[in-house]
Design brief:
By secondary structure, the protein is of the alpha/beta class. It is built from 19 helices and 14 strands. The strands form four sheets. The chain has a five-stranded parallel β-sheet with strand order 2-1-3-4-5, with helices on both faces. Strands 7-8-11-6-12 form a five-stranded parallel β-sheet. It has a two-stranded antiparallel sheet with strand order 9-10. β9 and β10 form a beta hairpin. The termini are far apart.
C-alpha cells in the first residue's frame, strides 16, 4: 500500500524539519513548503491527502490560502497557529478546515487528527469509519459539526460574542438552542458574569414574572420576603429565555420595556432598577404565525429579532451524524463506565438515513440507551433498531410530521403506555409489541418517569 501524502505549509524551518521527521517515521510521505505560493504549487505536484497549514505565512494570510485550497477541491486541511483567536477558529471552520491545532504542536495529537482526517475521506463519514477515536475526550457543552450549516453557526457565534446585541435563536425542538446561547456568552468579554436560563413554558404567569424581575414582600400569596429576579442577578451577564413564544401576553409588555429602557420594577414594587443584562431568546415556534393569531406582541417580536440565528435540523446536517455519534458514545462510556469502541457499519448507515424528528436530543437519547444496553465492543443495528421505529411495522420516516413538530418523549410515553395496555400489563409482551428487549423497555419506562406499574408486570 502506498504511503499517504502529507504537505506541511509553514515558514518555521525547525518546525518543518521536526514534523517531516515525525511523519516520515509514522510511515507517511511528507513534503514541506515555506510559503503560500510554494504550498499551492506543491498541491498540484504532490497531490497530498492531508494539508497542514499555518495561519501566518510571509506572502499570504493562511485563511486566504485555506479558501483557495477549498475552491480547488482540497479537503482534510488542518490549521495550525500560535495565535489563540476564537474568531480565526470560527472563520477557519466556516471556510472548511477539517480541524484546528494550536502551537506549540503536540505531535501525538496531530497524528490522531491526521488519522481521523484520512478515515473521514476514505469513509465519507459513513459505514466504514466505525471505530471512535480512543483518545477523544468528552467535553461538556462542546458544539459538534462541520457541515455547511454549522460553519455558519460558528461564524455567528464569533461575531455575536463580540457585542451585546439581542439575539433570537430559532430551531426545532432538540437542535441545541441553549448550547448556542451559552457559546455566545462563554466567548464574550462578559463570560465571568452569570448565564441565567429560564424556560418560559415551564413557569406560569406570576411566578415567571417573579423569576425574571423579582418581587417585593407581600406582592402575592406566599411572597414572605423580597426576592431578586434573574435580570438583577445576571449583572452584565446573559439572560436566556427559552421557548419565548410561551411567555404570557400580559408579561410581554414588561419584557419589551426592559429591552427598550434597560430598567424594570420588581413585582409589587415601585422602584426602578437598572440592568445591563443581555437577552438571548429562543423558540421552536413560528412567531410570525403567533403575531397573526395575536398571541405575541409585534413590537416585542421585532425587539427580540434584532439578529436571528437559525439552527438547522439534524436531517439537514447529516454529515455531522458520525461525529455526534462518536461524541455521545464517549460521553455515555464515561457516564456508565462502559468501553464501547464504536458502531457497526449497518448501524451507522441506519443513523445517517434516519429522519430524526427529535433532532440532536433524539440522537443522543438513542446512543445513550444503545451504550447502556450494548453487550459487545461495538453498537450494532440490533441495539438501535427498535429506537428508530415507533410504529409497529412502520418507520417513522413515513409518519407525516406536523408543522409545529412533535415532542418525542411524549410520543414515546404514549407508545409505551399503549403497549402495556394492549399487553394487559405484562411488560415482556409490551416490549415484544414494540420490537425491543424487555431490558430496553424497562429502562425506557423508568427513564421517562412513567408511573410505576404493579410489580408483577415486570418479572425478574
Amino acid at each position: 500500500m502506498k504511503a499517504k501524502r502529507i504537505l506541511i505549509i509553514d515558514d518555521e524551518r525547525p518546525l518543518l524539519e521536526t514534523l517531516e521527521m515525525f511523519l516520515t517515521e509514522k510511515g507517511y510521505a511528507a513534503r514541506c513548503a515555506m510559503s503560500a505560493t510554494e504550498g499551492l504549487k506543491q498541491c498540484t505536484i504532490f497531490d497530498p491527502h492531508v494539508i497542514i497549514l499555518d495561519i501566518r505565512l510571509p506572502d499570504m494570510n493562511g485563511l486566504e490560502v485555506l479558501q483557495e485550497l477549498i475552491r480547488n477541491g482540497r479537503k482534510n486541511i488542518i490549521i495550525i497557529t500560535a495565535f489563540h483567536d476564537m474568531d480565526i477558529t470560527i472563520k477557519a471552520m466556516k471556510f472548511g478546515a477539517f480541524d484546528y491545532i494550536p502551537k506549540p504542536i503536540d505531535v501525538e495529537e496531530l497524528d490522531r487528527v491526521i488519522d481521523k482526517a484520512l478515515k473521514s475521506s476514505s469513509s465519507t463519514r459513513t459505514a466504514e469509519a466505525i471505530s471512535i477515536d480512543p483518545f477523544l475526550s468528552f467535553v461538556e457543552g462542546k458544539i459538534i459539526g462541520k457541515s455547511r450549516g454549522m460553519k455558519e453557526i460558528f461564524k455567528a457565534i464569533g461575531v455575536l460574542s463580540e457585542n451585546r446585541i439581542t439575539v433570537l435563536i430559532e430551531g426545532e425542538t432538540g437542535t441545541g438552542k441553549e448550547l448556542i446561547a451559552r457559546a455566545i456568552h462563554q466567548n464574550s468579554p462578559y463570560k465571568e458574569h452569570p448565564f441565567c436560563a429560564i424556560n418560559c413554558s415551564t413557569i406560569v404567569g406570576t411566578l415567571l414574572e417573579s423569576e425574571l424581575f423579582g418581587h417585593e414582600k407581600g406582592a402575592f400569596t406566599g411572597a414572605s420576603r423580597s426576592k431578586r429576579g434573574k435580570f438583577e442577578l445576571a449583572g452584565q451577564g446573559t439572560i436566556f429565555l427559552d421557548e419565548i413564544g410561551e411567555i404570557p401576553f400580559e408579561l410581554q409588555s414588561k419584557l419589551l420595556r426592559f429591552l427598550q429602557e434597560k430598567e424594570f420594577e420588581r413585582l409589587g414594587g415601585e422602584k426602578r432598577i437598572q440592568s445591563n443584562a443581555r437577552v438571548i431568546a429562543a423558540t421552536n415556534k413560528d412567531l410570525e404565525k403567533e403575531l397573526q393569531k395575536r398571541g405575541f406582541r409585534e413590537d416585542l417580536y421585532y425587539r427580540l429579532k434584532v439578529v436571528t440565528v437559525e439552527l438547522p435540523p439534524l436531517r439537514e446536517r447529516k454529515e455531522d451524524i458520525f461525529e455526534l455519534t462518536e461524541f455521545f458514545i464517549k460521553k455515555y462510556n464515561q457516564e456508565f463506565g462502559k468501553r464501547i469502541k464504536g458502531i457497526e457499519e449497518d448501524a451507522m448507515k441506519a443513523l445517517i438515513e434516519y429522519n430524526w424528528p427529535g433532532n440532536i436530543r433524539h440522537l443522543e437519547s438513542v446512543i445513550e440507551r444503545a451504550v447502556l444496553m450494548c453487550e459487545t465492543s461495538h453498537i450494532g443495528l440490533k441495539d438501535i433498531k427498535s429506537e428508530l421505529r415507533f410504529f409497529h411495522g412502520k418507520d417513522i420516516l413515513d409518519f407525516e410530521l406536523p408543522d409545529e413538530g412533535i415532542n418525542v418523549e411524549d410520543l414515546e410515553k404514549d407508545l409505551l403506555k399503549k403497549a402495556m395496555q394492549k399487553a394487559n400489563g405484562v411488560a415482556t409482551k409490551a416490549a415484544k409489541l414494540l420490537g425491543m428487549s424487555y431490558k430496553t423497555f424497562w429502562y425506557r419506562w423508568e427513564k421517562l418517569n412513567i408511573d410505576s406499574p404493579k410489580k408483577d408486570t415486570f418479572p425478574k
